[in-house]
Amino acid sequence: DIQMTQSPSTLSASVGDRVTITCRASQSISSWLAWYQQKPGKAPKLLIYKASSLESGVPSRFSGSGSGTEFTLTISSLQPDDFATYYCQQYNSYSGETFGQGTKVEIK
Amino acid sequence: QVTLKESGPVLVKPTETLTLTCTVSGFSLSNARMGVSWIRQPPGKALEWLAHIFSNDEKSYSTSLKSRLTISKDTSKSQVVLTMTNMDPVDTATYYCARIRYHGFPFDIWGQGTMVTVSS
């Protein structure tokens, strides 16, 4: 199975900060990577698919990059609504998908 | 408007079989290349993919849970059903269903989730 490792696990930041979260795959997944945002008590929300494509309706301050085994999610200017937990997910394998362990973005 | 809604028992006993139903609206389970997945999340922990099924009835399961899971669909009822046998307290989690827009796409629309507790 493909393993996904996110870093950091927790990130403290202030409104207006540029924030970057990293996700590493245990083997190449090409660009088959998605990012989700989850708020407490809510279902995850798709932000980015195919590593760098912005899902419809998602603010342009969110961006994704990378391919192969290393990927990043960047929030260009952190907004109050962005404090949440972020998950990466690989969907390369027809045999299944895997999530990272999550990165919690907290208020500094 | 596309929606998915999970339903099932709130509480199950250890060793029992869990049956969860995902009822979808706004799209058809027979739409070409479209699929539905089940994902779970134990309290305070990460998301874990469980299984998916596509419109052509192609199915896939988590390697670690494959022996305990069965996924099926009833297109006429717009429902996807997941059964998990031999439930254990570690299976306590919120269970979500989510749509796969097409093969090679992640989960674009999620249900609200249903919390299942395993306890005697």
Please tag this protein with its features.
heterodimer, A: 108 residues, mainly beta, seven-stranded mixed β-sheet, four-stranded antiparallel β-sheet, globular, B: 120 residues
Secondary-structure element series of chain A: EEEEEEEEEEE
* Number of distinct beta strands of chain A: 11
Q: If you average the pLDDT of chain B, what whole number results? A: 96
Beta percentage of chain B is over 45%
Class based on secondary structure composition and strand pairing of chain A: mainly beta
Helix content of chain A: under 10%
Our count of helices of chain B gives 0
Rg calc of chain B: 14 Å
Could you explain the architecture of this structure?
The complex is a heterodimer of chains A (108) and B (120). Chain A is 0% helix and 54% strand. With 108 residues, chain A is an all-beta fold. In chain A, the strands form two sheets. In chain A, strands 2, 4, 5, 6, 9, 10 and 11 form a seven-stranded mixed sheet that branches. A four-stranded antiparallel sheet of chain A has the order 1-3-8-7, with no helix packed on it. In chain A, strand 9 (85-93) and strand 10 form a beta hairpin. Chain A is globular and about 40 Å long. The mean pLDDT of chain A is 95. Chain B has no helices and eleven strands. In chain B, strands 2, 4, 5, 6, 9, 10 and 11 form a seven-stranded mixed sheet that branches. In chain B, strands 1-3-8-7 form a four-stranded antiparallel sheet, with no helix packed on it. The relative contact order of chain B is 0.32. The mean pLDDT of chain B is 96.
